[in-house]
């Protein structure tokens, strides 16, 4: 039986952590769920790692639909979450709904939308119409040109308070999960304690409900400088399956991320 949003919420209510990895194709989708990964994120990071682009901005709705179908065909059990790519959620709640419907029809069980306050109306519009939303705050790669680089967010009192407020309003708007990227660990901990929905961290410390990494990063296939929050699980594993199982175990037992991976 496929993992549902209720299964994940039950884990959260029982104080159990769950695991997320990005996934873009059927082979990995089958492998990751067989190794115990709870959620497969069809991330628009596919622009970087599959398509070789510098940013996620060139990724289109059709790309996300195509990769969601590939992942959905490979997995029988895992929960599938798909990113709404750049420009498909921003124009209006109505347009976002039309686009999200296509992603859901391709096999996603939840869409992820980057953005804080500006996305509250859209989050409400979608969730009231049956589309579960994971809000994504902190470093939002689709806004990279406005943010001026891949850097830590919420590291001043003003920006930290803004993130706390965004988390609260997005929850109130109906978001069922909250992803935080590149946020200081103490702030992510505070936000996790403040909201009553699961939080998913990437570069946000160990106190989030769940953790996510880009699959190719945790398999040591990253390009260029390794970001501080990435752990290469292949180093201590004999094959890909072992590395994924070790990631699942490390997240569930709270061993990943440790202090060297947080800000
Ligand atoms: O697109 C993606 O892979 C993501 C993760 C980095 C969280 O959004």
Provide a descriptive summary of the structure in words.
By secondary structure, this protein is of the alpha/beta class. It has a single domain, classed as TIM Barrel (Alpha-Beta Barrel), CATH 3.20.20.60. The protein is 40% helix and 14% strand. It is built from eleven helices and eight strands. It has an eight-stranded parallel β-barrel, surrounded by eight helices. Strand 4, helix 6 and strand 5 (133-138) form a beta-alpha-beta unit. The longest helix is centred in the middle third of the chain and has 16 residues, at 157-172. The model has no long low-confidence stretch (mean pLDDT 97). The chain binds 3-methyl-2-oxobutanoic acid. 3-methyl-2-oxobutanoic acid (KIV) binds at residues 22, 41, 43-45, 83, 179, 181, 202, 212, 214.
Q: Could you say which overall geometry the principal axes of the C-alpha atoms support? A: globular
Which strand order do you get reading across the main beta sheet?
Answer: 1-2-3-4-5-6-7-8
Main structural class: alpha/beta
- CATH class call: Alpha Beta
- End-to-end span in angstroms? 38 Å
* CATH overall fold name: TIM Barrel
Rg over CA atoms, rounded to whole Å, is 17 Å
| Number of distinct helices | 11
Give average pLDDT, whole number.
97
Percent helix: 25-40%
How do the helices and strands follow one another from N- to C-terminus? HEHEHHEHEHEHHEHEEHH
Strand content is 5-15%
CATH superfamily: Phosphoenolpyruvate-binding domains
Q: What are the low-pLDDT stretches, counting only 5+ consecutive residues below 50? A: none
How many domains is the backbone divided into?
1
CATH architecture group name: Alpha-Beta Barrel
Largest sheet: 8 strands, parallel, barrel
| Total count of strands | 8
Bound molecules: 3-methyl-2-oxobutanoic acid
């Amino acid at each position: 039986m496929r993992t549902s949003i209720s299964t994940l919420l039950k884990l959260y209510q029982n104080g159990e952590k769950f695991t997320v990895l990005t996934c873009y194709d059927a082979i990995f989708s089958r492998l990751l769920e067989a190794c115990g990964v709870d959620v497969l994120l069809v991330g628009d990071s596919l622009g970087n790692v599959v398509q070789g682009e510098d940013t996620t901005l060139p990724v289109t709705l059709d790309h996300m639909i195509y990769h969601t179908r590939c992942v959905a065909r490979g997995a029988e059990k895992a929960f599938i979450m798909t990113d709404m790519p750049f420009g498909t959620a921003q124009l209006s709640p109505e347009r976002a709904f039309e686009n999200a419907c296509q992603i859901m029809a391709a096999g996603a069980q939840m869409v992820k939308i980057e953005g804080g306050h500006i996305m509250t109306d859209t989050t409400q519009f979608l969730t009231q119409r049956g589309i579960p939303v994971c809000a994504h705050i902190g470093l939002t790669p689709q806004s990279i040109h406005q943010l001026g680089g891949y850097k830590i967010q919420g590291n001043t009192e003003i920006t930290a308070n803004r993130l706390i407020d965004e988390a609260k309003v997005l929850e109130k708007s109906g978001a069922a999960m909250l992803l935080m990227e590149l946020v200081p660990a103490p702030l992510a901990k505070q936000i996790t304690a403040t909201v009553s929905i699961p939080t998913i961290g990437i570069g946000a410390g160990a106190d989030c409900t769940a953790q996510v990494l880009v699959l190719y990063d945790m398999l040591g296939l990253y390009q260029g400088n390794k970001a501080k929050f990435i752990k290469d699980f292949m180093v201590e594993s004999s094959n890909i399956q072992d590395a994924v199982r070790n990631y699942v175990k490390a997240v569930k037992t709270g061993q990943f991320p440790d202090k060297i991976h947080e800000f």
